[in-house]
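HUMAN: Would you supply a protein with fold tokens?

ASSISTANT:
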Amino acid sequence: MRTTEPRARVLEAFLADPHARRYGYELMKLANLQSGTLYPLLSRLQDEGMVTSQWEAPTEPGQRPRRYYELTGEGVRAARLELAEAGLAQRQGARPQGARRPATGGIF
């Protein structure tokens, strides 16, 4: 799977404190994304088992309930791996056109 920039931003926001619960508006600010991009992405992460969510009841009158999202244990591992692979792919893709890959030790 190709890691998109918005997905990478959300994963990075989660990994800043991997065990913290975060609500949508907070993630919007941390990842610098609009709600129309963020919420479908969170839904996909939840479907993949990387994120769980839970509604929290308002603590004060007039306050709206918040839905908190948190990386699962497997989500932490998968997010770190995905970002590492995306970084490697990006670095490899940045090689100037026509540049050759380093030799792998074979004799030719």
Notes: Strands lie at 22-23, 51-56, 66-71.
